[in-house]
Amino acid sequence: MARGNKLFCLSSGGYRIVKKGMNRVCELFNIKYPVIQAGMIWNSGWRLASAASNAGCLGLLGAGSMYPDIVRENIQKCKKATIHPFGVNVPLIYPDMDKIIQIILEEEVRIVFTSAGNPGTWTKYLKDRNVTVVHVVSNLKFALKAVDAGVDAIVGEGFEAGGHNGREETTTLCLLPLLGENIKIPIIAAGGIGSGTAMLAAMALGADGVQIGSRFAASVESSAHVNFKNAVIEAKDGDTQLMLKKLTPVRLLKNKFYAEVKAAEEHCATEDELKQLLGRARSKQGMFEGDMEEGELEIGQIASTIHSIKTVQEIVTEIIGDYNALVKKGFATF
C-alpha cells in the first residue's frame, strides 16, 4: 500500500523513496501520484476525471467526443466534484478547436493534453496564457517536434495502446528508452500499462510517470456503456488489432465492424471507401451507446488482463500498492 505521499522510485544508486514534489510529474501537475487518467473519447467524462483526481492522479476530460457546450458543461461539473487539478485532452484534428480552446481558457483549466496533430498549432498560445501543455507522441520524431514547440512534457504512447496510434507500431518497451536518451523534459509512458508491475517497468525504462487508459475505461465511473465495459473484461489475448492505417490507425476490439474493416483492407479498399465504411459516430455507437456489433470499440491490448469493473479509487489503490510493494521488497535486484 502507498503510505502517505510516499512513492518508491528507481535511481542510479538503487531504490529510493520519492515524496510528493520530488517526482517531476507530481511536481508539474501538483498531484499525489505520477499517474494520468487518459482523456479517452466516450469514456472520460467529468465523473471519471474527478474520481481520478480525487484518488491522487491527474484526471483528464476527453474533449474529442464532446461538442463545445458539452466540454464546458463537463469542466464545470468536474470543478464541483473535485478540488484537485484536472485537465482536458484535445485531439487537434477534431473540429471546433478554436471554440474548445477558448472554453478551456474561459473556464480557467490550467492543464491541456494535445494529441493527433501538430503541437506547434496551439502550444505557444496556451503557454502564453499560463496553461501547462503536454503532447502525445508515438515516435522520437514527433517527440522532438513537441519539445521544439515548447511543451512541458510528452506522453510516449506505444503500439499496445487503445484508440488512435502510430503507424510505426513501436512498442512501449522500445519507445521509452529511445525517448529517454533524447528528451530532457518529463516523459509519461502510455500503452500497455494498467498495473503496478507495468508502472514499475515504465519507470525503470526512464518514464517519470504513466498514463493509463484501458483500465479506467472499464471503471465504474467511466462514461462508456456497460456493454462496452463487459466486452473489455471478457476480452482475451489477441482480441484487439491496429486497423485503418490508410486513414488514422486505431486499435479496435474485434467484432462485426472490425471484420468488415479487415475484409475491406484485405481487398485494398481506397481511403474513400474506408471512410464510407467508417461513416459517422461509429465510436459513439459502440462505446457510448453499447452496440457491440456495428460500433467501433477502441481499447488497448491490456484488455485481456482486466477481469472486473472496479471504482477508480480501487484501481488506483491497487496499482500504487502493488508498485510500492514490488519496489520495497527489492524486486529485480540480484
Explain what the structure shows.
This protein is an alpha/beta fold. The protein has two domains: 27-223 and 309-316, Aldolase class I (TIM Barrel, Alpha-Beta Barrel), CATH 3.20.20; 227-302, no CATH class. It is built from 14 helices and 13 strands. It has helices at residues 24-29, 46-54, 68-81, 97-106, 123-127, 140-149, 172-182, 196-204, 214-217, 226-234, 256-266, 271-278, 282-288, 312-328; strands at residues 6-11, 14-19, 35-37, 59-62, 86-91, 111-115, 132-137, 153-157, 163-164, 187-190, 209-212, 240-243, 250-253. The longest helix has 17 residues, at 312-328.
User: Would you tell me the overall average pLDDT?
Assistant: 90
Topology pattern, helix = H, strand = E: EEHEHEHEHEHEHEEHEHEHHEEHHHH
CATH class of the largest domain: Alpha Beta
The description of the largest β-sheet is:
8 strands, parallel
